Amino acid sequence: MARINPYDVGLDKNAANYTPLSPLSLIARTAYTYPRRVAVIHGERQLTWAEVYARCRRLASALKQHGIGAGDTVAAVLPNGPAMYEAHFGVPMAGAVLNTINTRLDADTIAFILQHGEARVLLTDREFSATVEKALEIANVKLLAIDVDDPESIGGKLIGETDYEKFLLSGDPEFAWRLPDDEWDAIALNYTSGTTGNPKGVVYHHRGAYLNAISNILSWGMPPHPVYLWTLPMFHCNGWCFPWTIAAAAGTNVCMRRVDAKMIFDLIRKHRVTHYCGAPIVHSQLLNAPAEWKQGVGHTVCGLVAGAAPPVAVIEGMENMGFSITHVYGLTETYGPAAVCAKHPEWDALPLEQRAELNGRQGVWYHLQQGMTVLDPATMSPVPWDGAAMGEIMFRGNLTMKGYLKNPKATQEAFAGGWFHSGDLAVMQPDGYVKIKDRSKDIIISGGENISSLEIEDVLYRHPAVMAAAVVAHPDPKWGEVPCAFVELKEGARATEAEVIEHCRARLAHFKAPKRVVFGPLPKTSTGKIQKFVLRERVKSASAINS
């Protein structure tokens, strides 16, 4: 007879010993414990945690009265502000799924998202009314449009059936919301950039959102009551889960509708901001801001940087300014950051440039992620820890999406072999840290040699006149492909193509140096990421015309 495991007898889950994990529990605790602490600052407006919690419950109640519940989607085309923050709690409190939409998307793309996500309610700011109104016409969907009439907004008109504040007043501030029946239930829907066709809908669950919110605190070493500046849009991977993180930490959310370097420094001084997140371009803007803007910041400010590996020059410069920068890495499919370049005390004794090199890596997996590694995608075997053999970065664990909405084929492909395939190429360094080399599609193959565009970009950022840079493949009749550099210069700075190329040749193998340099503003997303696909298209077009 098979032995009965005594730990399986009479020890079942019940209401007293098991609760589904959800970030909704985080705001309830903070509002209970710190009701009078400031939760949200937006312009001159301030809301306490008790007030924000009541407003979230009103939103949930009003949505329920409108028939919104499990399986329904509530979309939001909003900047960072109280309404966007409240939606992260109020929508799932109603049992629905929050779909935050990039405010810089065109009408056609927004229309596709509204249709594909089957949005039943849309929260929209009047600043984006022209695009949203057109998107609604294209989509031809039946939904309730609710205007957020933010006094900080610029221009636009009201296009909704009701106003957000009026909608809240119809809800109950004591609404008895419930945790999800299952922590695997969906909490949010985010769409990928869609650079190769229609965007894919990435579905998050309550468990993942909760665990990443806590992981942000652990991996960053965030103390209680941080003052967090919203330089990162909340529509980007739900603000990397930081709406829920700041609720857990009982911090203060200082909102910004748009990234502006002078405003960032002003808000840092005024509210003694301690933490912020952003793409490398945000940090570059702060680094290159006029000296007078930076005056009066007498405390340490902690920043998270993500995206491509930040140039060493940026990390160096921010450290010299007194900012403590931590590099994280992730994708939409991993709730934003799911890896961190965990720092070691012994690095502090190293020269600044060497320290910056170490801190610019993608590092190791988050505390509450199960794993991150570099595998050969063909064999699914680990690459050697030699800093040279390239493979694909892969994740598995709690901080990985449920899958792609209505796209089982793409979901299966993404999870092939029991790992999530990032599409990013990297090496494992001898200390076990991951170092990204490129997006697989960004590798330039020139005369049979693989060239990393990130390696060239790192050198370009070291040129004193360069504000931002991106390198893509340029078709070449002899070599197949050669590197082409797109460069945005600092205000008032000058440089010639020959000077930039020589700068690179002096620091790289000559075959790696760009053969062409194009000067001008670089196309960027609302989160500051350089849109390389736009540059690829531009080069291809130019090549076809000149052939």
List the keywords.
alpha/beta; 18 helices; 547 residues; nine-stranded mixed sheet
Distance between the termini: 80 Å
Reported for the largest beta sheet, the result is: 9 strands, mixed
What is the strand content?
A: 15-25%
Oligomer: single chain
Strand order in the sheet with the most strands: 2-1-11-10-12-13-14-15-16
- Based on CA atoms alone, the radius of gyration comes out at 24 Å
Number of helices: 18
Low-confidence regions: 541-547
Total E-strand runs: 26
Portion of residues within helices: 25-40%
- Specify the structural class: alpha/beta
Describe this structure in words.
This protein is of the alpha/beta class and 547 residues long. Helix content is 31%, strand content 25%. It has 18 helices and 26 strands. The strands form six sheets. The protein has a nine-stranded mixed beta sheet with strand order 2-1-11-10-12-13-14-15-16, with helices on both faces. A hairpin with a 4-residue loop joins strand 14 and strand 15 (336-340). It is globular, with a radius of gyration of 24 Å. The N and C termini lie far apart (80 Å).
Give the SSE layout:
Layout (H helix, E strand, L loop, with lengths): L23 H10 L4 E5 L2 E4 H17 L7 E5 L4 H12 L3 E4 L6 H10 L2 E7 L3 H11 L4 E5 L13 E2 H6 L16 E6 L9 E5 H15 L6 E4 L6 H4 L1 H7 L3 E4 L5 H11 L3 E4 L1 H8 L3 H4 L6 E5 L6 H9 L2 E9 L4 E5 L11 H8 L4 E2 L5 E5 L15 E6 L6 E2 L3 H7 L5 E9 L5 E6 L4 E3 L2 E3 L1 H8 L5 E11 L3 E10 L7 H9 L10 E4 L12 H15 L1
Parallel strand pairs: 1-11, 3-4, 3-5, 5-6, 6-7, 10-11, 10-12, 12-13, 13-14, 25-26
Antiparallel strand pairs: 1-2, 8-9, 9-19, 14-15, 15-16, 17-18, 18-20, 20-21, 22-23, 24-25
